[in-house]
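In the lab's daily routine, each protein ends up as an entry in a very long ledger. A line of letters takes care of the sequence, but it says nothing directly about the fold. The three-dimensional part falls to structure tokens, numbers that each stand for a local backbone shape. The outcome of that step, for a single protein, is printed below.
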Amino acid sequence: MILKGTKFQLKVWKYLKTIPKGEVKTYKQVAISIKSPKSARAVANACAKNPYAPKIPCHRVIRSDGALGGYSGRGGIKQKLKLLRSEKAAI
């Protein structure tokens, strides 16, 4: 699959593919992992612009306060919750 996005989006999306099923990371944890620790908001925006959901699992990224955040895939936030529950994520 050839992904189309900005350099930053591609970096975020590539990292998202490494998050195992059933695990969640926060936007901040993703930002730190991609060596851009102050970019949690930009990570959230990259997740929001992900046209490849759920193949690129942006549903595995949540807010630091434990809230789900958003989900750009079909079905919105309800689908994000459904996906996380199906993966038995601790949410």
Observations:
- Helices lie at 7-16, 27-33, 40-48, 76-86.
- The two ends are 30 Å apart (CA to CA).
- The mean pLDDT is 96.
- Strands lie at 25-26, 61-62.
